[in-house]
## 1
Amino acid sequence: MVISSYDDIDNLHSAIASPLSIPEIAPDPTGFSAIKALFTGYIDASGAGVALIQSFDRRKIISTAGLSIFHSANVYKKVDGVGITLDTRLSATLNGSTLRFFNFHSARQIFDLSEYYIEATDTDINEFAAIKSIHIPDLAAFIAISDSWVRRKVSLVKQVRYSRPFQVDVIKTAALTFNIQMDIKLVNGVDAIVLPSDKAELKKILRFLDEDYYQSSLLSKNYITNSKRLV
C-alpha cells in the first residue's frame, strides 16, 4: 500500500542526514521499551531521502531480567548486558514523501496515519473555531495552512471537545509537563487557547489536545503515542 505526500512529522530524513544530532537512547530495558520502530536509510541518486523502517516491540528486547544466551565458537555464552534483536523484514519505506507498507494496522503502530480516515472540511474548521475556549486569530490563514494531518486532528479534537468542554487552566498546566507553551488569551470574557500560525507549533498543540502525549507511570518519562487504546 502507498501513501503519497506523507508528512515526515517524525523527521526521519533529518535524522538519517544528521544522525549525530539525535540524542542517544538509554541502553537499558526502560529506554528500549519506548522504541516503536527502528530505521536506517540513505540518499538516493535523485537526492531524495530513503528511510527503511522496521517495527519494534518489547519482545525484541534482550535484558538481564531472564537468561539470554548465544552460540559462538561451539560454546554457549550468557548475555550479560542488554540489547535488541532485529527482524529480517521491513515494515515500511519512506522514499521522499512516499510511504510504502504491507499492513495498515502495523504501519499505524509506527506512524500517525489518523489523517487518512476523516478530514475536517472548511465548515468543520469554522465550527471548531467557534468553540469558546479556542481562538484562531486569522481563520482564513489557518484554513490555508491546514493540510490533511491538521484537518484530521481538528476533526478528532472537535469531536471530543463538544462532548467534554476544555478546561483551559488544566490544559495549560498539563502542557508545561511536556514543555509545550500554551498562549492563553481572554476572548469575550472567556480564557481561550490561541492556536499559532506556525504549522510546526500548531501540529504540536493539536497533538497535545488530541492526547498524543503521555507520561509513564513509573519513571515519569514523557512519550508521544499514535494509539488511543485504553488500558
Note: The chain has two domains: 2-111, 116-216.
## 2
Amino acid sequence: MADIVTNLGGFSAGLTGDSQLRWLGPDKGVMHMAIGAVVNAAWDLAAKLAGQPLWRLLADMTPEELVALVDFRYIDDALTPAEALNILRAAQPGRAERIAALLADGYPAYATTPGWIGYSDDKLSRLSRQAVSDGFTQIKLKVGGDADVRRLALARAAVGPDVRIAVDANQRWTMAEAIPAIQALAPYDPYWVEEPTSPDEILGLAEIRQAVSPVKIATGEHVANRVIFKQLLQAGALDFLQIDASRVAGVNENLAILLLAAKFGIPVCPHAGGVGLCEMVQHLAMFDFIAVSGTVTGRVLEYVDHLHGHFTDPVRVAGGRYHAPSAPGFSATLRPESLRDYQFPGGPVWQRIGTTVRSD
C-alpha cells in the first residue's frame, strides 16, 4: 500500500502507459475507464490512510506535488508543467479562507431531477417548483424529443425568469438538427445546452457554439480523455466543461483536465448523474475551488436525488448546496447490505427479478 499511495502519479502513469494495455487505446474505451476505477480506488485508499476526505487531501498538497501527479503527454502543446505550476501557485493565497467558506456554505448545486423525458407536464412543473423551493437556483431538463419547446416553456413558467434552466440533449441531434433546435429554445432563455451532438464532434461543437450564441454550450461527461478536452478548449467548442469522476482514468487525469480548463478560463461544472457519481465528483469540484480555479463563480455541480442510500458516506445537499464531506476517503464505499443484495446473479434482488420474469 505504501508503494502505491506515496507515488500515485507513477502508479497512474504506469497503468495508462503500460505497453500491453496501450494497444487497446491509448487512453480510450473500457480499458481506460477500468484503469480509472483502479486509480480512483487507490486515491480512496490514500485518503482513508491519511484520515482525510479526498478533497482535503488534494487541497493540502503543494503545487509541486500536484504537478507531479499529472501526465502531460499529448497536452503539453496547450499546458506545460511550468504553466500548471503557475496556475496552482496563483491559487495558493486564500486557500484557508476558501476551505472555511466551503465548510460553512457548501458548494453550489443544480437539480436534474425535474426534467426527465417522459414526465407528465404536471410532474415537470411540480418538480421544477419544488427544486426552487428546496433552494436550487438552477435546474436541468432533458431535450431531444418532440415536445422540447413546450416543456421548456412549462418549466420557465413554473420557476420564473430568474432561475437558470439548462437543457441536455444527450447527443440526440446531428449537426443539421442541433442549430435550429437550439434556436427554437432560445426564447425561453436556456442557460446552457449540454451535449447537442456527438462529444467527439470537436469542430462541429465549435460551429454550433458560434451559431447559437449567446446560448452557451456544455459538454464533457462522455469525453474519453484529456486530449479531446484539450482540443475542445483549443477549438473554442464549449462554454462549460463537464468532468466525470469515472469516465477518464481517475483523479490524476481529471486533475490534468481541471488545469487545462483553468488555463483556458473555462468554468468546470461536473457531471454527476449516475450511481455514486455525486459522491465522488463533489471532491474534485471542491478541490478545484480551493486549489485550482479559486472560485465558484459560473460553477455549479449536478445533483440527482436517487440511490445515495447505498453508500456509507452519501452526499448531503441542503439549500441547493453540497455540504463538504468529512469522512476519510472518496465517498465511494458501498454499504455491505447493498453489495450483498445486488451481487449478480445470486443476490436477493436478482433472485426476485428472476422469479418475477419466470412468473410472467
Note: Residues 107 and 182 are 29 Å apart (CA to CA).
## 3
Amino acid sequence: MLILVKGATLGLSGALSPGPLQAYLLAQSARQGPWRALPLALVPLVTDPVIIATVLAVLSRLPPAALVAMRLGGGAFVIWLGVNALLALRRRPAGGPAVHAPPVGFVRAAIVNITNPNAWGFWIAVGGPTLAGFWRESPGRGAGFLAAFYLALCGGNAALVFLFGELGQLGPRAARALAAASACLLLFFGAWQLRDGLLG
C-alpha cells in the first residue's frame, strides 16, 4: 500500500506541477476541445520509458554540456510552439476550430516532454532512485510503483485537459482567451528553459 500511495502521490504532483507539457496540453485542449486533446494526456507513457532507461543506464555519465544542450533545444522548441499558437489565433476567425491531426499533436507533445528538463530532473533525483529501490526489493514492487505513478499522472493530465476544455466552451471569446493564455504559458516555460540552459 505504501508503494502505491507513494507512486500515486508523485504522479499526481507531476500532473499538477506547471511545466511545458502541461502548457501544451492546455493549449491543445483550448484549440481542439477536450476529447480531441485527451490522447495527449498519455504522452508520458511513450516518452518516459526512454527517459527512465537513459537515466538508469547512461545519463549519469554524460558531461554537463549535454544537459545544457537539451535544455536549450527544448526551450527553443517550446517557444516555437507558443509563437505558432499565437499566430494560429490571428489566422483563425473568432470561434472557428483549429484542428490538428492527433498524430501531429501527439508527436509535438512527445518532443516537448522528451526535451523537458523537469521530466529528466524528476527521474534523476526522485523517480529513478525510488524505482531502483523498489525494483531491488522485488520486480512486483517496482511494477506497482510505476502503475500507481502513471495512473495518477495520466489521470491528472486528463483532468486538466477536460477542465480547460470545458472552460473553453463558455463561448468564442473565452476559448480565444484561454488559447492565448496557454500560448503565453508556452512562451514563458520555453524562455525559462532557455534561461536555465544559458545559466546552467
Note: DSSP finds nine helices and no strands in the chain.
## 4
Amino acid sequence: MPSPQNLSVSVFFPAYNDEKTIAGLVKDTLAVLPTVADDYEVIVVNDGSTDETGAVLDKLAEDLPHLRIIHHNGNKGYGAALRTGFANAGKDLIFYTDGDGQYDAREMTILFPLMGDGIAVVNGYKIKRSDRRRRKVIGAVYNRLARLMFRIPIRDVDCDFRLIRRRAIEQVELVSASGMICVEMIRKLHASGCAFAEVPVHHYPRTFGESQFFTISSIARTAFDFFHLWLKIVARRPFAPDSPRRWKLIVKSAAAAD
C-alpha cells in the first residue's frame, strides 16, 4: 500500500434520521483520516431526514473545512444515497459506512493495509452481529441467499464497511435505490473482474433510532427487489463460460482485528 502521503481518500456516510450519531462519526473520522492520507474529504448524504440531522450537519460544516454536506430533497432510499456519495467522491479511494453508529469509523484504518496492488475492494465482515435475534436470523438468510443466487465472493454483503477504488466503482452502473444496491454493487464489481479482500470488523448495538428495514412491508419490498434484481443481472446475464474471472479473496484473521 502507498504511504499516507500518496493516498487520497473520500469518506462518505449515508444518513437518515441519525441526529444522535452522525456528529460523532464525522469527528471520529476526521480524527483518524490524517493517519492514513494527507488528501482527504468527508461527505455526508442527508437522505431527507425528518429529525434534526440536517441542522446538525450544517452546523458541523461551518467549523470543519474537510466536511461537505449533500441534502436530498426528501427520502430517496439507501441506494440513492450511496449513488450520490459515489458520484460526489473525488479522491482515489472511497470508504463508506452507515450513519447510525453500528460501526466504528476509526476501524477504517485496518482496511488500508489490504488495499494492495490488484485489490479493488476491501470489505469488512462482522465479527459478531450485535442485533436482536430476529434481525440476526433474517440477516443470515438474506446473506446466504445473496451469496448463492448472485455468486458473490465475499462472506458478508450486508456489512456496509467498505473501501473501494474509485476507478473500480466508476466502471459499473448502479441503479438500485433501495438497500439492494449492496448486492448489485458487489455482483457487478465481481463480474467486471475486481479482486476483493476481507477483514473482520466490530459491530455494535444500535443505541438510537430504529432500523427501517425490519418491518413486514420493508421485508416484502426487499424480497421483491431481490428477485427482480436476480432476474435482471443474473438470470438474463450470466457469466460467459469462457470469460476470465479474475477475482481473488484475501482474508485477515479475526485475531488481528482485536
Note: Residues 76 and 247 are 32 Å apart (CA to CA).
